[in-house]
Amino acid sequence: MMSTDFQTWATERLALIETCLESHLPALNCAPERLHDAMRYVVLGGGKRVRPLLAFAAGELNGADEARVTLAGAAVELIHAYSLVHDDLPCMDDDVLRRGKPTCHVKYDQATALLVGDSLQSLAFQLLAESRLTEDPYEQLEMIKHLAFAAGSRGMAGGQAIDLDSVGKTLSLPELEFMHIHKTGALIRAAVTLGASCGNQLDDARLKRLDHFAKCIGLAFQVVDDVLDAEATTAALGKTAGKDAENNKPTYVSILGAKQARELAEALQQDAHRTLDQLESSALRLKQVTDFIIQRKF
Ligand code: GRG
User: Per its UniProt record, what NCBIfam families does this chain match (predicted)?
Assistant: First the structure.
């Protein structure tokens, strides 16, 4: 059960992110109109915005200015939105619905969807580069580098490549974990690091703890996603292990079963909480976002 205090906090920050994304996306009447319309269609008014919420919570822990964290969180969300648009394409997961609406290539066309993804990725880095996010410009460069690494072939895109390669294969649990640490986890870790980097200088020990925390919740996010997917498919079609399993992709539920997958998510939640307890300042918001990730129903 989410506390009303957390709900209020999250609602306020969701509004900040929405306004920031709205104002930085190209306007509808600005040419090329179809591309800009499609960019706004995929980014605005949808999604849980988990990554920006993590950035806000990590920023709060580290004394960051909220306007700076908003920009950093929006940049991460733009990368996330681009990844979903490309992931939905026929050459990847071939999905027709996203966030309850037709996917970008269905509503527009495949070429537009490709360009939407490219343009959102560029816009993310533009946002990070054009505003002052930290007092130290070298630290800001580190943030840009961090997001570039997390989104690239040694992060999210690499994880996606492993995912595509895993179709029809049996993966061991460590192999599945390796894939998700990259595909889903890298961007979640970047959200935490970038949010915190907007605040006070981070010493290595604190950075290491925060990163371990983010690794735990990145994996937990994916485990819960697999469980929710399996539950939704079971409710709709009878006994199956979820859409990915139907597509012949290994998932935590197909490897562990639903009960053990839930237990794994809870163990990761506890590890995340324990890691936060080792920080010297209260990490209430990060704990609340962690619990939201584990307890979410969508
Ligand atoms: C195409 C380079 C490239 C990468 C795609 C993250 C990813 C890599 C694909 C997404 C596929 C997917 C559905 C993975 C399951 C976990 C996940 C990232 C779900 C979607 O994220 P949410 O739940 O989405 O945060 P919302 O809609 O709430 O923003």
Answer: FPPsyn
